[in-house]
Each structure stands twice: as structure tokens, then as C-alpha cells.
Amino acid sequence: MVDGPALRVPRKVAAASLVGTTIEWFDFFIYGTAAALVFNRVFFPSIDPALGTIAALGTFASGFIARPIGGALFAHFGDRVGRKPMLVYSLLLMGAATVCIGLLPGYATIGVAAPVLLVLLRFCQGLGVGGEWGGAALMAVENAPDHRRGFYGSWPQVGVPLGLVLGTGSFLILDLTVSEASFLAWGWRIPFLASALLILVGMWIRLTVAESPVFRADAERREASRLPVLEVLREHPRIIFLAAGSFLATNATFYVSSVWLVSYATTELGYERSTILGANTFLSASDIPMILLLGLLSDRVGRRPLFLVGMAVLAITAVPYFLLVGTGNIWLFILGGLVVQACRSAVYGPQSAYFAEQFPTHLRYSGASLAYQLASILGGIAPAVCGLLVLWTGSLMSVAAYVAAMALVSLACSWAMTETLRRDLVSVPDDGAGAAVRS
Q: Which residues cross the membrane (predicted)?
């Protein structure tokens, strides 16, 4: 095709964004699986097992508290000096924290210092992944042809399910090949330590990618904002909080199903651990084509309609989903999971383009990152909230009601947002409105 060379750079950047985000999310998600399966016994062995699991999931949530801080920190420099350097630094931070977790002694060896250091390292993971998404998403979207921003922007999004596939798959292999005692003693550490090799690969790939041309062009015609995070909060608060709300249910239900259900299904519903890990690996893999196809579809029908349909269906199917999960039948578990995956993918596929299109170039990293990471706070505490709801009510339906309520919040926020499909990414109006058309 004639346009082959013109598409080479967007494809290279999308591939680089995919590889980098996959590695970062692999590091982030292996923590969640380990927290659900072993951290209560390794780092919180002196308290009741149920409370120990909640405590372990609470340390998981600490990474999400750090994510907005990381998003703001990396966004400040991402809007001032460029997207590419922040991608390199975020990957380094994430890799160092992950390897250190793999080397961290347990409670039996160093006492209370073990869970304290675990929380600190998880916080560092949160800082790293907080800076990751905005840079990867903007590099893909700002390098894409105008009529394919949704599709190319969906590639870094695929790093999330692919990272989960690799993370869950690694624990599944360990579960099938080592004894319970070995898994508890040292087996869980292997994915954390193996991350060191993946980080080296990711660093090499990211260092070969050029800076965003949209950022370079904008930097040549205007002076960088001195405090872009504060400026975007002052000038665009409405769209930041609406975008965060539109992503709330997608983010939270992801962690409910990939983290909390791993623990609850194996301890309370009678599922085998290897069965649940295998099912989650399959469901994550099914997410990959859905995200890409729905990102592509958003380039034809718009971003907002997909957000609305996804959240409306999620609100309607929350109760049936947990009824299927509660049967103890793995095939019904997978069936319900596929429906929920499709609902989330309707948001996650077009999200990079939709969030990027909301903000002017000089504030884009800050605005998009803050919206994404603010939603991550409530999303990250969702596994611990689910554990407390079941502990208090004794019913899985309390979790279903929680998911349905979040879906309705996201639906309302999505309804209040504007369509951005036809917006010129280079000249997004500084008032956050202008070219957007309600659809």
C-alpha cells in the first residue's frame, strides 16, 4: 500500500507502548495475585486468616493510593519535557520495586518490618504505574492518524489484560509444578524476580522510540506550563472528574474479578485454585481482541456511545454475574466473566483516545493521567471493600449491589461527557469544549 511508510511510525510506537505497558502491568498484577493467595500467610501470619487476607488486600490498595501521586509527578514533567523520558523512568521505578518485593523477607524473619516494607514497595509500584498510563496512551494517540486514534490508542490498553495473562499464567504454572510448601516458601517470589529480565527488554524498546510529534510541535510554538497539574485542575476540573467517574466501574470491577474473586472463589465457593487461575487467564486473553475491536469501532461510531452501552449493560448484569459465580460451576463463571469483560472493553478500548482528546496538548499528560488515576483510588480499594461487604453481610449479593452502583455512577458521568471523535488533536480548545459535539 502507498501509505505503508506513513503508518510505520504509529505502528512502531503502538507496539512499543504495548510491550512497555505489558511489562509494567505484569509487575503490578503479580502483586495482586500473590496478595490474594499467599501474602496473608507470609506477611500477616499472626492474625485471623480472614482478616489476614483483608490486610493483604489492603496493602494491594496502597499502590492505588500512590497512583494519583505518581500520575501527577510524572505528568508534571511529561507536559514540560516530553512523554518519552517519563516512560523510561516509570519503567525503572516499577522494575526496582518489583524485584525488591521478590527479595523481601517474610514476617517470620524480620517481624513487623516485613509488612511495613511491603507497603512501601507497593507504594513505589503505584508511583511507577501512575506515571505509565498517561505517557504510553499519549505516545500512541499523538502518533496515530486522525481517523485511527481509537484503534492505535487501544494498543497500550491491551497491555493490561496481556500483563494479567502473563502474571496469572506464571502463578498457574507454579501452582501446577511446585508443592504448596514450596510455593509458600519461595515459589511466589519467582515472577517478581523474573521481572528484572522483562524490564531490560522494555527499556531497550522504549529508548528506540522518538518523542511525540504533537508534543514537539506544541513545544515549539508555546512556552511550557510551569505547573501543568495545577493549571489543568484550575482550567478543566469538570472534565477531569467526569472522566474519572466514567472509568470508575471499569477499573473497580477489573480488580474485583482479577484479585478479590481469586481469593473468595477458592476459599468460600469451592473452586480449585488452578481452575480459577486458568479461568482468569482465559478471560484476560479474551479481553485483548475485544479491546482492539472496540477501539477500532470507536473511530466509526464515537467514544461516548461505547462508554454508555458498556456501563448500562454492566449495571443490568451485575446481579446475574454474581449469581453465576456463586453456582460453583466454572463454565458459568466464565460465561458471566465474558459479559463483564465486554462491558469493560467498551470503555477501555476507546479510553486512551477519548481522554487525550479532552485536553489541550500542553496539559494533556496531566489531565488524562489525573482522570485515570483518580478512578484508580476507588478501583484499588474495591477488593478490600468486597471482602468487608461479605464479612458484614455474608452475601455475595452485597458485592453485586456494589458493582451495580458503581456502574450507574460511571453511566451518569459518561452521559455528561461530550463526544470528541472529530476533534483536531493538535488544536484542542483551551476551554475543553469548543469542537466537542454532544451525541
A: 12-39, 51-75, 87-110, 116-141, 153-174, 186-207, 239-262, 274-294, 306-324, 370-393, 399-417
